[in-house]
Design brief:
Elements (H helix, E strand, L loop, with lengths): L11 E2 L3 E5 L4 E6 L8 E7 L6 E5 L10 E5 L4 E6 L10 E9 L5 E12 L9
Parallel strand pairs: 2-9
Antiparallel strand pairs: 1-2, 3-7, 4-5, 4-8, 6-7, 8-9
Amino acid sequence: MAYRAGAREKVRRSRKMIEIIRGDTVTFNCDISQNIQNWKIRAEFFSNDKTIELKKASANTGGSAAQIEIVDDVTGLFNVIISAGESENWESTMNFEIEVETPAGDIYTVLQETLKIKEQQIKWETP
């Protein structure tokens, strides 16, 4: 699984956590090296007690390309996108899971990670 920053966001992988900045746009570049044509892809970000949840899905699963963008279905490349502000109310530690479903109905969890949410240090205001 590869991680890449969105336009302004820097994603760093520490020991067992991925660090992101609260409120920023983040794009997780995912590579599962499988042909994922017609596969359903779901992602969920959630707090330990599940009181905070953000669900993402591919277009064929009720979501959209703004949530999960298929980059290259033949080679298994897709992006999971957190839009600006979606992480604004997240706890300092969140969980992240991605699962895929094949056309035959087989379901595989391809990632389970913990996210560390860091506070933004620069906040621009209109003068």
